[in-house]
């Protein structure tokens, strides 16, 4: 009996060592829009696969050195990138990604926050939103896709481009809502999934549908991935049916169809 127990213990130890040796570190460069979803889903993937996810955060675009394209250009390593779909397309054109590895993950709408304790503004219609912005002492937007849309198109669509020019400010790299929480700006715009996790702000709501801009988030395996197979498995899990309740709970929309053309256009 003692020999049987000893044999079983040896078998378990060998299995444990083999499992540990097979486990891989999957390095993911990710922008803020999908980060909350991945952080919630990571434990499930790690438990199922035995692999470990390492996150490196950075904007999908912009001029900061933390931006994902800048990180890749200076030689930082990643197995997977998850970011705004149009920015991902640019990486593909520049041969930073493995051909055919792109996986559609979620759609993200733009929303607005105010500092906690401040009156919750009404932005249900274009007129409501226009009035709220004209009354606001200051406006903040991101340096990524949502901010480019707000600064280059939303104000123009609302007919207030000149009126808000001096009080609208771009926030680079850090979450817009964190600056609103500090009282540095009266209102802030960003992807809903990036606004919701930030404390000390009140989520006002999404932009009215006719002036909304929906951003597609997608992922791909990098051309120089060390653990590309594991990275692709992660992307397949994140896009699977079992992940969708968590994806939606973080303020994202499940991918059900191609985005309308006007929403798919790159914001310059």
TrEMBL record:
UniProt keyword list: Signal
SUPFAM superfamilies per record: Periplasmic binding protein-like II
Keyword Transmembrane helix: no
Database matches in Gene3D superfamilies: Periplasmic binding protein-like II (3.40.190.10)
RNA-binding keyword on record: no
Cited Pfam families: SBP_bac_11
Organism domain of life: Bacteria
N-terminal signal peptide: 1-23
InterPro entries recorded: ModA/WtpA
Name the record gives this protein: Substrate-binding domain-containing protein
Higher taxonomy: Bacteria, Pseudomonadati, Pseudomonadota, Gammaproteobacteria, Enterobacterales
């Amino acid at each position: 009996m003692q020999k049987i127990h000893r044999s079983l213990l040896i078998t378990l130890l060998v299995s444990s060592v083999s499992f540990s040796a097979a486990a891989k570190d999957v390095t993911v460069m990710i922008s803020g829009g999908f980060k909350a979803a991945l952080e919630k889903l990571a434990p499930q993937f790690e438990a199922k696969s035995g692999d470990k996810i390492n996150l490196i955060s950075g904007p999908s675009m912009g001029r900061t050195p933390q931006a994902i394209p800048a990180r890749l250009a200076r030689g930082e390593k990643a197995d997977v990138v998850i970011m705004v779909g149009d920015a991902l397309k640019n990486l593909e054109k520049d041969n930073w990604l493995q051909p055919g590895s792109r996986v559609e993950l979620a759609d993200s709408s733009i929303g607005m926050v105010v500092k906690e304790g401040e009156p919750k503004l009404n932005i249900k219609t274009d007129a409501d939103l226009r009035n709220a912005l004209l009354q606001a002492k200051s406006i903040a937007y991101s340096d990524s896709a949502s901010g480019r849309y707000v600064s280059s198109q939303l104000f123009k669509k609302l007919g207030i481009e000149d009126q808000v020019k001096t009080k609208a400010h771009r926030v680079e790299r850090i979450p817009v809502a964190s600056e609103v929480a500090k009282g540095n700006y009266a209102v802030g715009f960003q992807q809903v999934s990036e606004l919701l996790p930030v404390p000390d702000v009140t989520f006002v709501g999404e932009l009215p549908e006719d002036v909304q801009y929906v951003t597609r988030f997608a992922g791909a395996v990098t051309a120089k991935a060390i653990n590309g197979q594991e990275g692709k498995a992660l992307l397949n899990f994140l896009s699977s049916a079992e992940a969708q309740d968590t994806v939606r709970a973080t303020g994202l929309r499940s991918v059900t169809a191609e985005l309308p053309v006007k929403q798919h256009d790159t914001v310059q």
